[in-house]
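Re-running Ribosomal RNA small subunit methyltransferase G to confirm reproducibility after the cluster update. Everything else is unchanged from the original entry.
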Amino acid sequence: MAAPADTGVGSGIGGNGISSGNEVTAGEIESSVAEAGLNPLAPGVSAKFAQYLELLLKWNAKLNLTAIRTPEDIVRRHFLECIQCAQLIPPVASLLDFGSGAGFPGIPVALLRPEISVTLGESQAKKAAFLREATRSLGLSASIFDGRIEAMPPSQQFEVVTLRAVDKMTAAYAAAFERVAPGGWLIVFATSGTAERDTAYFAPIAWEAPVPMTGMSDAFLLLGRKSE
Ligand SMILES: C[S@@+](CC[C@H](N)C(=O)[O-])C[C@H]1O[C@@H](n2cnc3c(N)ncnc32)[C@H](O)[C@@H]1O
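Result of re-run:
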């Protein structure tokens, strides 16, 4: 799948209330969430996002975890998109973030939806190490699956599987579908160029109307339910 489109909220430095320095305060994150029209975060959650951002910047300088590098872009493209996703997830008990990378959307989901048991699946060792450190520092109970999702025991299934910017789409899709429990949800981050292909690929899934990403001109969330 293509990476999320670079057409987000705001217009670069200062466009979403984020200053150009390397520090982003909890207040600035709350303002960005409000400007994007998303529901306010629960008390304490914006401070956790500020801490997550600091960790990302520190590790990204050495390990190249994400190509989105500046604080304002990380808030605008990674955080806001994933916060919107977390707020849309139906009431469920378990979620697999397939190809979590630096934690998107799994870590924002774990921060916003502590009732969900989140598994962050990531095959690259350096990214899995970051996920371990990030979840430890942020006090999250999310587990890390350090390997290819295809290697999970066949019986391991989840009520929600998220897919965001995962490459080798055909193989990833087949593996993701296997991990969705009967009656569970698949949530795909898509653009107008991929939405039709994505929904067509997962034929046995009943798709809801694509949800436009807040403040984005060409990004959608696809939510589909696997039959019982
Ligand atoms: C482009 S990154 C996107 C990461 C994150 N979802 C995001 O939106 O920023 C895709 C990640 O998926 C991981 N990945 C791809 N196929 C995988 C598989 N079959 N099992 C586990 N991880 C996988 C890659 O190692 C990579 O870190």
